[in-house]
Specification:
Order of helices and strands: HHHH
Low-confidence stretches: 11-15
Distance between the termini: 38 Å
Bound molecules: zinc ion
Number of helices: 4
Largest sheet: none
Mean pLDDT: 75
Length: about 80
C-alpha cells in the first residue's frame, strides 16, 4: 500500500480549491459555508422552506406492499 491517494491531483484540488457556492457558483466563504454569502445562505433556506429541495415522494402505488403479510422474522 502507498499513500499515493493523498498526493493525487484530485486530493490536492480538494485541499486547495474550495467548492463553489451551490447557489451562485461564486467562491465559498468559510463563514457562510458552503455558500459565498449570507444572501446565498438565505436563498438556500428559502428553497428548503418552499419545498424546492423536497425529497421526491414515492408514487402512491405502494399499497401493494400493505396487502402483503410481513416477512417472517429470521433473526438467527
Ligand atoms: Zn453564492
Amino acid at each position: 500500500m502507498t499513500d499515493d491517494d493523498a498526493k493525487s491531483p484530485r486530493a490536492k484540488a480538494a485541499a486547495n480549491g474550495r467548492p463553489p457556492c451551490p447557489i451562485c457558483g461564486a467562491k465559498m466563504t468559510p463563514a457562510f459555508r458552503p455558500f459565498c454569502s449570507a444572501r446565498c445562505q438565505d436563498v438556500d433556506l428559502h428553497r428548503w422552506l418552499s419545498g424546492g429541495y423536497a425529497i421526491p415522494a414515492r408514487p402512491e402505488d405502494d399499497d401493494d406492499e400493505a396487502d402483503r403479510p410481513p416477512p417472517p422474522e429470521t433473526e438467527s
